[in-house]
Amino acid sequence: MAAQFALSADGTRIAYDATGRGPALMLLHGMGKTRRDWHKAGYVDRLKDAYTVIAVDMRGTGDSDMPTEVSDYAADKVCADVTAVADACGVERFGVCGYSFGGTVGRQLAASTDRVAALAVIGVPLWGPTVDEVFDRFITDFLAKWQPVADAHTTGSAAGQTKTSPIKGRMAVWVACFQAMRGWPATRAADILCPSLLVCGTKSHTRAADWAQANKEALERTCARVEVVEGLSHLQEFSDVDRVFPVVREFLERPDVEGG
User: Fold this and answer.
1) Which of these, 251, 240, 174, lies nearest to 203 by C-alpha position?
2) How far is residue 28's CA from residue 107's CA, in Å, rounded to a whole number?
3) d(CA 139, CA 143)
4) CA 129/CA 126 separation, integer angstroms
5) Cα separation of 130 and 166, whole Å?
6) CATH 3.40.50.1820 domain span(s) along the chain
7) 8 Å CB contact between 260 and 63
8) What are the φ/ψ torsions at residue 98 (nearest 5 degrees)?
9) Rounded to whole angstroms, how far apart are CA atoms 51 and 45?
10) pLDDT at 167 (0 to 100)
């Protein structure tokens, strides 16, 4: 699990680790998590016999660089981080499995490059606005509470706090990222041309299951597949690996995915 590093287009160092052999599969974590969580949850061990599993620390997390300007988290820069890792690994095409924020990055990536062979999204809709009304209210509340902490960190007045509270030290990153996401483009069904999967729980606050029901007819006209798992909260959509992983693995083993 030792970190390797790729240099993104804007000079940001992106940490990753690669395990196993076979077709390349990028794992993109959720907000507040790191690449190590894919290892801890057991996904990497279950995939490494059939895939080259590349777990990425998104910029601002884990061992990656931690820029704090809103412009640092533009969608094209975050997507460029993933392709930079692919380039560093000598990989042209790759699958993507993303949870929550990582799923949102994954759908942006799949809509912007044909290098994505397959896309598995856990816990967020496959397309639509990046920031809907519910998420926008969350961001507003989050900024009201944490912007002063982020400002103190970036000006250096919170240096003592960050030593005792790593979470507060990350607030500048989250504040910048959430603000940037308000400017990320919406994705459309027609934008995602690779085989795609949505796994979501019925008790998740992201309401991806409701989105799937509302878009049932549109989904039937695409190459997308949806698996709704009864009773899972948003956290459990990642942590309940025994219920989520088999769905992801079955999708990845489909002939149209393997041949991507």
Assistant:
1) 240
2) 11
3) 6
4) 10
5) 27
6) 4-129+186-258
7) no
8) -130, 135
9) 10
10) 61
Residue 139's φ and ψ, nearest 5 degrees, are -60, -45
In degrees, rounded to 5, the angle at the alpha carbon of residue 83 between the alpha carbons of residues 171 and 105 is 45
Instruction: Give this prediction's pTM.
Output: 0.94
Written out in words, the top-level CATH class of the domain with range 4-129+186-258 is: alpha beta
Token pair 């008790």 is found at 203
Reading the block at residue 69, the tokens are 């300007």
- Residues 105, 109, 114: CA angle, nearest 5 degrees: 160
pLDDT score of 163:
41
Q: Closest Cα partner for 12 from 76, 75, 80, 62?
A: 80
Question: What tokens appear for 41 in the block?
Answer: 């949850």
Dist. CA 188–CA 111, nearest whole Å: 8
Say what the pLDDT of residue 193 is: 86
pLDDT digits (tens, 9 = 90+) for 128-177: 999 999 999 999 999 999 999 888 877 765 444 444 455 666 899 999 99
Total residues belonging to the chain: 260
CA distance 61 to 27: 14
Cα dihedral 81/145/121/62 (nearest 10): 40
The residue ranges of the chain whose pLDDT is under 70 are 156-169, 255, 258-260
Give the pLDDT confidence score for residue 42 in this predicted structure: 97
Judged on CB neighbours under 10 Å (0-12, 13-18, 19+), 48 is middle
* Residue 254 identity (one-letter amino acid): R
> CB of 110 within 8 A of CB of 196?
yes
Q: Which residues pair with 14 in a beta bridge?
A: 6
Secondary structure of 128-175 as H, E, C letters:
ECCCCHHHHHHHHHHHHHHHHHHHHHHHCCCHHHHHHCHHHHHHHHHH
